[in-house]
Amino acid sequence: MMKAVFLRSTDQDDHLSKFAARSHQAQRLVDEAPCPFRSPFQRDRDRIIHSKAFRRLAHKTQVFIATSGDHHRTRLTHTLEVSQIARTLSRVLGLNEDLTEAIALGHDLGHTPFGHAGERVLNELSPNGFRHQDQSLRIVDVLSHGGHGLNLTNQVRNGILKHSKGYGPIFVSGSESPSTYEGQLVRAADIIAYLAHDLDDAIQAGIVSVNSIPSSLMERFGANASCRINSMVIDLLNNTDQSHELLSISFSKPMEESMVELRRFLNEKVYLNPTINLQLNYGKSVISFIYSTLMSDDHLYRTLAFHELAESREQAICDFISGMTDRYALEFVENLSKQNP
Asked: By the 8 A CB rule, do 150 and 51 touch?
């Protein structure tokens, strides 16, 4: 019988560029004995994949309500596409692919049901506001694994917290920027993925016709999701500068301008489309109803799992609602209606 050969973290780092995060530099909130055959970032990836929060992403809306079509992206398929793009970029640039993958797989764990519409209404309702990236970090630090958290490395935690752009710039500096280049890649891969697949889903749903897409965008990105992803990935790789002491990850100016134009087109024609908003506004009303009911019903509130882990009632309710899938949120309201006809 052949004896297994276990790799040390330093061995796993040998092939990486000078810009990559090293496995032996990984730090956790609580120290742990090392695994004999996985790097710390591999362990983080595995913990995320095996978490309940990750599985719930399969039934959370990306743009189109999860039940509206078998082939529309969900929050889970979006996450997997971000992971694939980020891993490709990381491998070509010689960065730490394990760290990149772990950040990508965990970046949207805190998303609410009903997509960004759900996030917006929770942000309006909660006195402390609500951001899905903060909630993602809360899930891996506190709520997962029976309330013990996943004890992820600080590098993965930072990448999860700093991945979101909103409608701001793709790359930022200072305290808003991820602390690792791997985190910066996930930030770029996130927008590459959603620009490509949100347009693809909108075309398949009949919300947008190919002829309505500006010719400048068609010429820049190509005719389908695969071409669009390829165009953005190649542009980023061609314009990332590795010749200095610091790695400069960037798109070309024409590409970044086109990405902003495509994001604007999607916002106008897709995200604010009346058909989509009709569905999402119903989702917002569902979340508002659940929030107000839990704020006023003491008995129901005390039945919430992990409410003792929250520093306020509002935080506990946000924890509960953000953990819901679209389907569970609808079922929860239906059951409340049956109990109080």
From this structure: yes
CATH code where residue 102 lies: 1.10.3210.10
User: Does any domain span residue 303?
Assistant: yes
* 205 neighbors 271 (Cβ within 8 angstroms): no
* Residue range 96-133, pLDDT digits in tens: 999 999 999 999 999 999 998 999 999 999 999 999 99
Q: For residue range 55-90, what is the model confidence (pLDDT) as tens digits? A: 999 999 888 765 555 668 899 999 999 999 999 999
pTM of whole model > 0.90? yes
Asked whether residue 44 is assigned to any structural domain, the reply reads: yes
Distance CA 115, CA 63 (A): 6
Give the count of domains, the chain: 1
